[in-house]
């Protein structure tokens, strides 16, 4: 800090150390970081505390991986794939390997994918790797900074192009990059990357790079043994480069699991001042048998027993031990069934008056993840709490009953988003065969549909004079400095409407007549106007999914295709072959069109651009009195709009409109 300084004196000094990954003066690298998955790095606070092989477990496997990574044996294959069923501890192995290789200066990059936590965007994988390479080889930063500033679109380019421009070519331009030769890149949870095709593409890019020697790295992939990944790894051009290790469920792990449980429960006992023998040898044996070799089961057990808000560790332990009577022999051979029994036990501990709220929080968290990623991730709890009209204290209290499977992340001094310890819990919560009455796509779905629709109508009724007004139950102070590109009210409104359509499109359960009646009364005409300040340009609704979910009597009252040629004539000039749709009924209906170049797909595009939607204020299906009141006005409009058309086309239009009347 003061190299070369001498004869210096400081009086009451204050030193501020700012240790971040931000690189001053390099706007290109700042953009690269923004397009990376920082939360997926092995040392990210988003994953703290990370899964880990505790108490010297799996020493032989870890040594095998380290020897492979540092190339102790000549002719070693540069691609390592470890596969195993869920919960056997693959992420813990990957984490320990990343830490060990980082200490040996042999870790080039690492990414730990997570589906429930939305760390699985395939378009951000190579940007994330490139940024980590800069941290290991700073001269690369100058090259990448120039590349990105010259062509910022490279950050959103196709995966092969990203790999070439952000990794391959920059490495060739920096002589210091030679030190990265043989370093390892770790990709854990590979099966959780969004999209099977993307997983294929990434494997092909990696294999091509190894075969053509365009990059100097070793690649370490960990995943479940999904069929499509097995096929990709068995391909003739992959097999010669691949070293495979299986991580099976095995009773050989029982001793290590016992050691882990004894250490963890000893610490819990000391914390609560319990006698050393508070968990007996027989009870330890039962816990090991219940785990069935699943490390995720063991780690969840310890969090459950150590829950500070429970009736104490002994009470929690007895609840876990009670599962031994339910876990019959057929269940013991099915790891999913064993885990499901434990997840049932966890959810059963939620008080009955809190359970509906907790399930709705889980469902909404799942619904908004795609909409609020990246720099908007910190607004997830803000959105969910306000859709449900919960104060932040109530929201936090509802989540506090699930400390074994999730926790709330704080960002800039306020609750930001929910983090799950493992993907298996949300997989359980979304599968009705596994979670039964606790499935979020069951009664919870229908209750939440109606609640969100009523929340939308409440916002509409408060927003008089065409100005959006939202009464927030909680608003984090960070929104006081919200950017000019969007407003918190419009952003919340956009999320709420997106959730409303998403819930109604979900085919897991048909919409009831009472919910359909509430949806029919929604003022759809407000949507483009109020969502315009959200920072999003449009919203897409799946026509078939929504319509098929509605009761037959409500289909045409809520969403339908227009057969009126005038509506097609009024479409925006820049749209080509499109369908015309009507959402709702007059005077609060909305006329919009399908997405451009999407003629075969029935997707409704609700654009927030004034040029791309029309208010549907006069209904074509009216009572006799209503027809009489608008008859003369409608006839005048028809004459004005159709006077330029040939007689034969005018006749078709009039017959079409007469049929609708």
Automatic annotation (TrEMBL):
Nephrocystin 3-like N-terminal domain segment(s): 64-224
Parts of the chain that traverse the membrane: none
Keyword S-adenosyl-L-methionine: no
Record key words, sorted: Repeat
One Pfam family in the UniProt entry: NPHP3_N
SUPFAM superfamilies: P-loop containing nucleoside triphosphate hydrolases
PANTHER family, sorted: AMELOGENIN, NACHT DOMAIN-CONTAINING PROTEIN
Name under which the protein is recorded: Nephrocystin 3-like N-terminal domain-containing protein
Record organism: Leucocoprinus birnbaumii
């Amino acid at each position: 800090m003061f190299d070369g300084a001498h004869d210096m004196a400081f009086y009451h000094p204050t030193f501020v150390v700012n240790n971040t990954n931000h690189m001053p003066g390099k706007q290109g690298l700042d953009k690269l970081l923004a397009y990376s998955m920082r939360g997926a790095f092995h040392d990210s606070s988003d994953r703290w505390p990370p899964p880990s092989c505790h108490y010297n477990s799996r020493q032989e496997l870890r040594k095998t991986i380290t020897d492979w990574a540092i190339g102790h044996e000549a002719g070693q294959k540069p691609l390592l794939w470890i596969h195993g069923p869920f919960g056997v501890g693959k992420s813990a192995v990957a984490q320990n390997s990343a830490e060990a290789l980082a200490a040996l200066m042999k870790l080039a990059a690492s990414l730990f994918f997570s589906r429930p936590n939305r760390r699985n965007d395939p378009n951000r994988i190579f940007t994330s790797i490139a940024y980590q390479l800069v941290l290991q080889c700073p001269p690369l930063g100058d090259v990448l900074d120039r590349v990105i500033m010259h062509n910022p679109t490279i950050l959103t380019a196709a995966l092969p192009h990203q790999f070439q421009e952000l990794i391959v070519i920059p490495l060739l331009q920096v002589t210091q990059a030679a030190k990265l030769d043989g370093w390892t890149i770790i990709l854990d949870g590979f099966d959780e990357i969004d999209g099977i095709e993307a997983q294929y593409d990434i494997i092909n890019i990696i294999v091509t790079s190894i075969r053509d020697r365009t990059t100097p790295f070793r690649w370490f992939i960990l995943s479940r043994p999904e069929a499509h990944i097995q096929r990709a790894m068995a391909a003739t051009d992959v097999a010669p480069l691949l070293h495979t290790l299986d991580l099976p469920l095995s009773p050989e792990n029982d001793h290590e699991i016992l050691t882990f449980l004894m250490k963890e429960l000893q610490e819990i006992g000391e914390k609560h001042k319990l006698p050393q023998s508070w968990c007996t040898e027989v009870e330890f044996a039962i816990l090991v048998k219940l785990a069935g070799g699943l490390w995720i089961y063991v780690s969840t057990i310890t969090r459950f027993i150590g829950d500070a808000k429970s009736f104490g560790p002994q009470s929690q332990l007895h609840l876990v031990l009670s599962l031994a009577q339910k876990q019959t022999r057929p269940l013991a051979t099915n790891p999913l069934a064993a885990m499901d029994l434990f997840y049932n036990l966890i959810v059963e501990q939620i008080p009955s008056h809190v359970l509906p709220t907790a399930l709705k929080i889980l469902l909404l968290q799942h619904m908004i993840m795609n909409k609020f990623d990246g720099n908007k991730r910190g607004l997830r709890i803000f959105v969910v709490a306000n859709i449900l009209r919960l104060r932040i204290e109530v929201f936090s209290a509802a989540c506090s009953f699930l400390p074994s499977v999730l926790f709330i992340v704080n960002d800039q001094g306020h609750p930001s988003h929910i983090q799950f310890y493992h993907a298996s819990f949300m997989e359980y919560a979304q599968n009705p065969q596994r979670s039964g009455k606790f499935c979020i796509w069951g009664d919870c779905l229908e209750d939440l549909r109606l609640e969100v629709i009523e929340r939308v109508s409440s916002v509409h009724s408060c927003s008089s004079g065409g100005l959006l007004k939202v009464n927030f139950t909680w608003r984090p102070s960070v929104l006081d400095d919200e950017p000019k590109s969007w407003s918190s009210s419009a952003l919340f409104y956009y999320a709420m409407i997106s959730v409303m359509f998403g819930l109604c499109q979900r085919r897991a359960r048909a919409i009831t007549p009472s919910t359909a009646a509430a949806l029919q009364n929604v003022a759809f005409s407000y949507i483009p106007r109020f969502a315009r300040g959200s920072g999003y340009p449009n919203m897409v609704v799946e026509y078939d999914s929504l319509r098929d979910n509605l009761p037959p009597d409500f289909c045409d009252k809520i969403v339908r295709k227009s057969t009126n040629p005038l509506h097609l004539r009024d479409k925006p000039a820049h749209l080509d072959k499109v369908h015309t749709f009507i959402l709702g009924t007059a005077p609060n209906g909305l006329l919009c069109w399908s997405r451009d170049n999407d003629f075969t797909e029935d997707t409704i595009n609700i654009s927030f651009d004034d040029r791309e939607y029309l208010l549907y204020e006069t209904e074509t299906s009216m009572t006799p009195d209503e027809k009489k009141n608008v008859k003369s006005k409608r006839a005048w409009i028809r004459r004005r709009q159709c006077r330029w058309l040939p007689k034969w086309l005018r006749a078709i239009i009039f017959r079409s409109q007469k049929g609708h009347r």
